[in-house]
Amino acid sequence: MNDTFMKEKPVFPLLVSMALPMVLSMLVGSLYNIIDSYFVAAISEDAITALSLVYPVQNFISAVSIGFGVGINAVIVGHLGAGNHEKANAAATLGIIFSAVHGLMFTAAGIGLMPEFLRHFTVNETVLRYGIQYSRIAFSFTLYYMLSLAWEKIFQAVGRMKTTMICLGGGCLANIILDPILIFGVGFFPAMGVRGAALATGLGQLFSLILYLVFDHISPLPVRINPQSLKAARGITGRLYGVGIPATLNLALPSFLVSFLNALLAPYTQGYVLILGIYYKLQSFLYLPANGIIQGMRPIIGYNYGAGERLRVRRIYLLTLALNGGIMLLGTILALCCAEPIICLFTTNPGTIAIGRAALRTICIGFLASAVSVTSCGALEGIGKGTQSLVISLCRYIVVIIPMAWILSRITGPDGIWHAFWITEIITAVVAAAVYRHTVRS
User: Helix axis angle, 161-180 relative to 11-41, nearest 10°?
Assistant: First the structure.
């Protein structure tokens, strides 16, 4: 494959070839999340509640990993588009180094701070015990997870999407296979409960990292990890964090939002907290395929932006928006028609099922509008405009939904929080369209 295929190949087949492997791997990943929750729910409702409380911290660590990876990806493809391979090598090398440092820091912080964090949201000793057991094992694998994400973004930057599909899918399949074995005990494996779920997750992440290293050894990337390339690293650290920090904040904001909403819902019943956690597991089945298209789009739009191909940038954006809109429409239909059977996968409590049914059917009203903000954020990150992307995410996760959820919960009770989701998506879609149009035109 030549180095200029991203600006020469027709847009539709190019986007499909780059995005389809990512969509498939993301679907496998989202399926894993749902299956993981299904197995944990079989332990007890306290166990799935504990994982719901740990989820915001896990999501924050994922946000740092993926967000900094977006910075790695954007800087590499920008230099490749401009024909500067030495700078691309330096960006990849620094990306791996900084990801390792991040991994060690978050391992220590995650394990050390989780007990106190959990005590802010529950007085149930069983839930607390499950949460501490799960987090200690899961966060022990943070280094491998962050390195795996860094390698993923480097592979994507050079167009090796099929390889990332294999590596991501391999890790997720390892999780799915190990979950029932380690949770319930099979053969000589002891029943570990929630600790087994955490160990299965960590081993899957480690397996993905090993696959990336094996593929790079068998078929070396055109971008190399080489300490000698750091001679060309001037200015790259600033660019990595200049894109990575806003991208991280974009992804971390949901963690803050979930914690805030948990605090609003906790005074009512445990069922509301449980449903919020289940919803964020379920939405991954919808938003991760959309994110797969975004990941396929990022290197293409970044390369063409770096090469000055403005018309192709516009066509890539509109095509991505149309594809994501189709995914969100399908998700809306499924949520409206199948809300109760979906919730029944995770609980048999009639009161909790009723809460979940109402929540899904209300929240899904905003799915289609969210395609605009999701696509705009991804496109802006791809062309290195992280700050503008952050503006959209702030509206979506802080500026609009937090005061809206607080006000509606005071007026109509906890069910008002579900209405805050779709109202926020519509308002944010308008803001996102305006921000993206202004940024590209200027």
Answer: 10
